[in-house]
Amino acid sequence: MLYRPGEVASQLGIAGSTLRLWSVRFAEELSEQASKASAESSGQWAQRRYTEEDLELLSKVKSLLAQGLTYQEVKRQLRASSRPPTTAPPRRPDAARPDPLPDGLEIPMAALQEEIRAKDKTIAALKESLAFLDTYLQTVRRERDDARERIMELESELQELREKVSRPVGSGAKSWLKQVISGM
């Protein structure tokens, strides 16, 4: 069974741009239909298709990258445990394919630009969140200051009430509190 890029990205839990990047970076390890979109005779580009083996390999790539390995280290790991794909057709030696550049420099500019756009969107969203949190923090600080002011007002009122309670009622009379206590 062959899978479309969207299906593979969804199953792996990665972005489509990441799948395209991995399809280029690990082109030698993937089946031909997964490693490169090919031109049809009409001049139209065919969409990549991924086999079960490609899906397993990409899942392993995701796992190894999550462990902190670099692309080169992942390639070495994959080559060390490589086995030829069983359902993918063999690569044609005459297929138009540029020679790979050293250290995986064969990444197409469009994939890099898409990655940059995705990162820019993430940065913009983080800036928006930060602006919201800053506004929220200012509001909380204002509320705190208002609460402190109200506490000071209430403490002042409480002090006045304490003074009234302890003041003598009339000349030579006991304080109101003493009167209440003696009346009991």
Describe the global form. rod-shaped
Cα-to-Cα separation, first versus last residue: 95 Å
Uncertain ranges: 38-42, 94-99
CATH class of the largest domain: Mainly Alpha
Radius of gyration: 36 Å
Oligomeric state of shown chains: single chain
Helix residue percentage: 55-70%
Average predicted confidence as pLDDT: 79
**DSSP helical segment count:** 7
Q: Would you spell out the secondary-structure blueprint of this structure?
A:
Layout (H helix, E strand, L loop, with lengths): L4 H8 L3 H10 L6 H4 L16 H15 L4 H10 L28 H58 L9 H7 L2
Helix pairs in contact: 1-2, 2-6
Question: Could you characterize what this model shows?
Answer:
- This protein is mostly helical.
- The chain has two domains: 5-96, Multidrug-efflux Transporter Regulator, Chain: A, Domain 2; 108-184.
- Helices cover 61% and strands 0% of the residues.
- It has seven helices and no strands.
- It has helices at 5-12, 16-25, 32-35, 52-66, 71-80, 109-166, 176-182.
- Helix 2 packs across helix 6 (109-166).
- The longest helix is centred in the C-terminal third of the chain and has 58 residues, at 109-166.
- The radius of gyration is 36 Å and the shape is rod-shaped.
- Residues 38-42 and 94-99 have low confidence and may be disordered.
